[in-house]
TrEMBL record:
Record's protein name: Multidrug ABC transporter ATP-binding protein
Organism listed in the record: Thalassorhabdomicrobium marinisediminis
A matching Pfam family: ABC_tran
Coiled coil, from the record: none
Domain (ABC transporter) ranges: 5-234
Segments crossing the lipid bilayer: none
Any one GO molecular function term: ATP hydrolysis activity
Matches recorded under SUPFAM superfamilies: P-loop containing nucleoside triphosphate hydrolases (SSF52540)
PANTHER family for the chain: ABC TRANSPORTER ATP-BINDING PROTEIN (PTHR42711)
CDD domains xref list: ABC_DR_subfamily_A (cd03230)
Amino acid sequence: MPDIVEVRNLTKRYDGGFEALKSVDLSIREGEIIALLGPNGAGKTTLISTICGITRATGGSVTIGGHDTVTDFRAARSLVGLVPQEINLEPFETVMNSVRFSRGLFGKAPDAAYLERVLKSLSLWDKRDAKIMMLSGGMKRRVLIAKALSHGPRVLFLDEPTAGVDVELRKDMWEVVARLKADGVTIILTTHYIEEAEAIADRIAVIAKGEILLVEEKSALMSRLGQKTLRIELAEPVTQIPPALGAYHLGLEGGDLLYTYDTQTERTGITSLLADLQDAGLQMTDLQTHESSLEDIFVSLVTEQEAGA
């Protein structure tokens, strides 16, 4: 698919010299869901705000749908919907009026049928005449999405969309995002919940200290960097690793042996390990495998970046 958002050499430097973004390059494909992961202060919100034109970049460029966000701001911004972290809604306004007002801000003509479709897709249609203050936190999040979609954008930025909502509502939101993608909307998601990215993203971008560490297909990333750990439960727990097994670089936990291996190599070494285990006089009672999660990979990447800083 073609790229709908192009970020090139984007830099944001504040007075005092702090660089929130350091020569960021990022291409976002039309119709995909890309998750932007990073610890607090990594630059996620700054990057989104700069792409959307809320924050002015110090250097570099951003184009959305071929429109430069500085020289052709109105055309670029009309293609974008932004759902911020904070729930900042007029409490005494109704859902429908709030969404209708957002559409008008973009100079769009009234379109009751379109807004009805948006509200129904977010399970808000029956709440259209309810005042914002009467809604739950999860429903208010949905109103924010409805407002962001009110003018028919092609790109939707979701900045921590499930922050502060329970697990059930979070999964409901994932379904909403999946439906938006099915409708052809490109989605950029920032999140602290690793399982959120693992569940719904097509690609993962990891940012730390204002730098993009990698951008990769989720499945390829987990396959390339993922490792498996084999837990070997013994009939008689051990307190130290036998010298005969030293070449395997085993770990020790609760009397069990831990063997970590790369899933991409032709030979894992498990067969020879089990044979040497028997030769060492150790009797195995159970085997369990654990595969690296996206969280394991994320923590590893950020730790490496901080160590090299």
